Amino acid sequence: MECPDGELSVLIVDDLEIARLNKTYLGRSGPTNVIAFPMRDGPFGQISPNLLGDVVISLDTAAREAQDASISVESRFDQLLIHGILHLFGFDHEKTSEQAKAMEIQEEQLLKLLQDFELRD
Description:
Layout: E1 7-13, H1 15-26, E2 34-38, E3 51-58, H2 59-69, H3 73-88, H4 97-120
Parallel strand pairs: 1-3
Antiparallel strand pairs: 2-3
Helix pairs in contact: 2-3, 3-4
């Protein structure tokens, strides 16, 4: 996952907006927790290789999921941000169970790194 100079944008929205994006770009109805829009894919993906893409997170859904899991909204947000960033790097959990497991392992490793970093601050 080497990309030391990578750039991404993070957009925090409500359920209404993420549902609109979900329908428009993924053809799926209703809100979701996170959507990633990779910029390094497609015919023009190499124009700006350091531009990873956009991660859109529904704070409404994140808050509900945090409450259901008895964790803080901040912790759930961190999980969703890492999940979205992994999608920008090409990880996919919907195609095969092997890819889902690889993504889950990577998420756990990155969350641990983030937690260790936060403990040092």
